[in-house]
Amino acid sequence: MSNELLATIVGGGIGVVGIVIGALITQRSARIEFRQKEYQAKREALTDVYKSLISIINLYPDESPNDILRWIKYAPGYHLEGFDAIFNILDIKLEDYKNQLGILNIDYQRKSELEIEISNIQYAKERLITNRNSYYKAVKEYTSFIDSDKRIFDLYAGQNVRNFLVRFEVTISNVFVAGYSVGEPDDPNDNTIKIARRGLINAMRNDIGII
After folding, report:
1. Is 191 in a helix, a strand, or coil?
2. pTM for the whole thing?
3. Of the four listed, 64, 115, 159, 205, which is most buried by Cβ atoms within 10 Å?
């Protein structure tokens, strides 16, 4: 084989390899560019949705109605969103205690106990009203979110975010439907609502690349 022919064959082979490599590089670059554009579209679509969802989950109270009631002697048990039933029972107890205070010659210790119970019930009612109002406002806003933004959420949200949203929903149901305690309301590491909320927010931040 002549040197000229060999050079032609080798040169042609190198040319083909170069074309293949170039095509692979172009294809890889196109895939990277597509993924970047896809991620950017996802981030743009989800940013407002996640902001809306965060504002909503922050509306939910950090304590269960039963956590508020635990300081009342012989307190009624809350469950199934039964705020009205709880208020009715507390009003009956309050009226009874006030009537007992009106008894002539009531001894000092009993009077002091009744006054403490009356104060506890009145304070609990104030906190329960705030708790109820915050809960129902959150429920209303979340229902609106489901009707308007959930389609975008379902289309773009990462699986980890979906999982944490389910955990948050279960936690809220456990607290405000089943009537579970949140644990220790003031401890962020022993409060089921705070833990579920924090996990969901962190999952959303990670999903759109916010550290």
Report:
1. strand
2. 0.77
3. 64
